[in-house]
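DEPOSITED CHAIN:
***
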Amino acid sequence: MLPPVDEEQLAESPFTALGLGRPIVEAVLQKGYSQPSSIQQQCIPAVLAGRDVMAAAQTGTGKTAGFTLPMLERLRHGPHARGRIVRSLVLTPTRELAAQVADNVKAYSRHLDLRSDVVFGGVKINPQITRLQAGADVLVATPGRLMDLVQQGAISLDRVEILVLDEADRMLDMGFIRDIQKILRLLPAKRQNLLFSATFETSIRRLATGLLHEPVQLQVTPENRTAATVEHILHPCDMARKPDLLCHLIASNDWQQVLVFSRTKHGANRVADRLSAEGMAAAAIHGNKSQGARTRALAGFKSGELRVLVATDIAARGIDIHQLPHVVNLDLPNQAEDYVHRIGRTGRAGHSGHAVSLVAAEEHELLRAIERLTGKKLPKQEIPGFEPTVLSAPPLDLSGGRGRSSRGGGGNRGVGNRGGVSRSGRPAARSSSRRP
């Protein structure tokens, strides 16, 4: 049962002062949120004013509520969607992130007569086609599945009032640019555009130039910097002994909720099996898992049924767990930016977090790239009994075949093999007070 909200709470809420109406503020307060985050304070008034927005906001900054709340406020005053019409469209790179955004939309619109839906690949399309016959005031979608639905005539995008590109940098890295370009051609010229990215790198600025009209530019944290509340530590270790050291760290420190990043899908499976064999409830989440298995693993991790979740970079997008205490890099990411994305899942909303990296000699160049990007040297600590025996080694071979684009919901096809390259020409991402 939802907690009651009295008139005084509504009147004095900072969310009311930002221009949000009673039904939405009531939903926010019922979720237990009292203070807007920095991105919300800046973004909500801009969206309510009808401005295009370009925002650099990393995971954990409250960006989803930053665009969801004012979008719902604008939509609630217009005619509702009917007959395959979509009024607002939120594009996300992965299934998990799409589901996360859709959950937020549903929670914040609980007191509104608005219809919302979410569509992504990896599940049957016919139920989605049936649901969309009634239209959607808010549709959250991955690009590939959205194009499939458009091609089958299940929805019409010619009346979209608001377009949101969430984690646009990741969508470009995953090779979605062609699908995005096709989708943009289906939208009306007159619309509001909101673009969110972890960084304002060149490819994002190029996309924004052709998409946004005189946008408000927001940046809530310095680019490529990590939260001050996160404690970083590096443990040198031979590559072959990383699973042993991971088990030792979890057991000896009695960590009860740990998110582990693996570079590959097979590596994630092996580590999850090893942890389970050691008596630590664990599961792997990656693009080769069915959507049902991924959903169950994430739910089990959030509830505490699973102690360890082993994820690849792509599958982890959208994981949003309040006060997640520990993130472990079993393998360093091939793109330094992904280090920031990974550890952004701990140390949120002012809470402390612990980011641990197990680093082999072969990963020396990857470590240097991360330290250059973040502007800080990771403190090093050897663990007795796990000291590295290999002190120098050739770097990992990151060259190889070009990755294929991923379609239909953010699985890591085309980005799961070592050495893949995204269409942007950069190494592809490897599979491998409370605030909204």
